[in-house]
Write a structure and sequence with these properties.
The chain is an alpha+beta fold and 197 residues long. It is built from four helices and seven strands. It has a single domain, classed as 3-Layer(aba) Sandwich (Protein Transport Mog1p, Chain A), CATH 3.40.1000. 28% of the residues lie in helices and 27% in strands. Strands 1-2-3-7-6-5-4 form a seven-stranded antiparallel sheet, sandwiched between helices. Strand 1 and strand 2 form a beta hairpin. The longest helix is centred in the middle third of the chain and has 17 residues. The protein is globular, with a radius of gyration of 33 Å. The N terminus is likely disordered.
Length: 197
């Protein structure tokens, strides 16, 4: 009788351990790939002769910039000595037709090469530093530019062969707003309507 009790558990144990064992398989974990779309590079724009194609009243209104007064434009000419191919100066907020008192000036210029354009940017920054202005690097759209704090508030930037200078009177914007708004104006000026050239 005693032997029967012993054989029972032994047979049970033998039954549990007998037979081929399948290797345990892990369930497949789905892999998710995320691809961040690459930003479309900004096209290098052509310098227009019309200031309405540089920055519009709607652009300024969207940035909460009220310039008042009139608008004047001066089309520049090519200057081979500095490799400049085109230029336009846009004066906004001109009181009584006197553009020397404009609240905001946006200048676009194009050059034969990116290196020539960069040389003009560096010259402008150097001249302002000599006059005692403080210069700091700022974002201008996807690129970089320089914020210059001197007699006026300026942003100087370049995209390819095209440069932009945004020059604002201190009476137009408080310093904290100028530091935010002027790079946005520069970015819009460097971007042709519709993103084309």
């Amino acid at each position: 009788m005693r032997a029967r009790w012993l054989w029972g558990p032994l047979l049970l144990l033998a039954g549990c351990g007998s037979g081929p064992t399948e290797p345990a398989t892990m369930p497949e974990i789905p892999l998710f790939t995320t691809t961040t779309p690459k930003p479309t590079p900004r096209a290098e724009r052509k310098v227009p002769r019309d200031c309405g194609l540089v920055i519009t009243d709607d652009d300024l209104a969207a940035l909460k910039v009220k310039v008042g007064g009139g608008t004047q434009e001066v089309a520049g000419v090519p200057v081979p000595d500095i490799k400049r191919t085109a230029r336009v100066d846009c004066y906004f907020g001109v009181p009584s037709g006197d553009r020397s008192k404009a609240a905001l000036i946006v200048t676009l210029a194009s050059y034969e090469t990116p290196a020539a354009a960069q040389a003009r940017v560096e010259l402008t920054i150097g001249d302002e530093r000599k006059l005692g202005a403080a210069v700091t690097e700022v974002a201008v759209g996807a690129g970089r530019g320089h914020y210059i704090e001197g007699a006026s508030r300026m942003v100087v930037a370049r995209h390819g062969r095209v440069t932009v200078v945004v020059d604002a009177s201190p009476r137009l914007l408080p310093d904290d707003q100028a530091r935010r708004v002027l790079p946005a104006i520069a970015d819009r000026a460097l971007t042709a309507p519709g993103g084309g050239s």
